[in-house]
What we know:
Blueprint: H1 2-12, H2 16-25, E1 27-28, E2 37-38, H3 45-51, H4 56-64, E3 78-83, H5 85-89, H6 108-124, E4 127-128, E5 141-142, E6 149-150, E7 152-154, E8 159-163, E9 169-173, E10 192-195, E11 198-201, E12 212-214, E13 218-226, E14 229-234
Parallel strand pairs: 3-14
Antiparallel strand pairs: 1-2, 3-4, 5-6, 7-12, 8-9, 10-11, 12-13, 13-14
Helix pairs in contact: 4-6
Amino acid sequence: MTLLWALIGILVAPTSMTMAFFKEQVAFDSDSQDGLVRQTSLPTLADLLTLEARASIFYSYAREVNTSERFSNDSDALTMFVPTNKAVRALGRKPHEDPNSTDINASDTEYEAISRSNVRRWVGSHIVPAPEVNFTSGISYDTLTEGVTISFKLISQDETVIHDDSAHFTSVKGPRAVDYVMKHAPIKNTDLASDNGHLLPQAIDGPIWRNYVMNDGIHMIEEKKASNGVLYLIDGTVNV
C-alpha cells in the first residue's frame, strides 16, 4: 500500500520545472473582474516587424545599419512610424542614395560608408525615442536623426480618411467631400451631417491617432503595441 501511494504521488505531483515553466508563461491580471490568470506579455518591436510583411523593406534597412538592435531591448522604449513597402518603393530617391551628388572618384569603401550613413539617418528619422507620443499636444518630437522632427495635425473637414479591410488609407480631398467610410473607421450617427446626399463625418470614431496626419500629410494606417513601445504603419516616408 505504501508503494502504491508513493507511485500515485509521483504521477500527480507537479515538478518544480513544470511549475517554473508555468509561472514564466502567465502573469496575473490585477484588473480582471473574475480574477482569472491571463497571459499579459506583449511582443517586442522586433517581433512585430519580423511578422509584418508590409514593412519588410524598412526592417531590412534597419538591420543593415544595426538600428534594429534597439527594437528588442525592453529597456529602450521607442515609438516607431514605419513606412509600408509601397511607400518606400514610391520614393524618387532611395534611402541609401545621397541627397547630394556623390564624388565619382570615391572608393567602394567610401561609397559604402556614405550609403550606410544615409540609411541610418533615414531609418532614425522614423523613430521617436519615447514610449508614446501625444497627438493633441502640438509638440514636435525629436527623432533619432538629429534635426529631423515629427509633428501631428488634426485632419480637417476637407479631408476624410477612408480605411479598407486591410487597414490601408485612401484620403479623399475636396470641399467637405466623402464617398464612404469602411467598417475600420465607423462613424457615429450623431457625427453625421448631410450635404447634397453625401454623408459628412465630423470626426472619425475610434483611436485618436486616426484623426491625425503627421508631417507632410502622412497617414498612420495601423497601430501595434509592443512591450518596448508602439509601432505605427504609415503610408508615406519622413523627409530627411
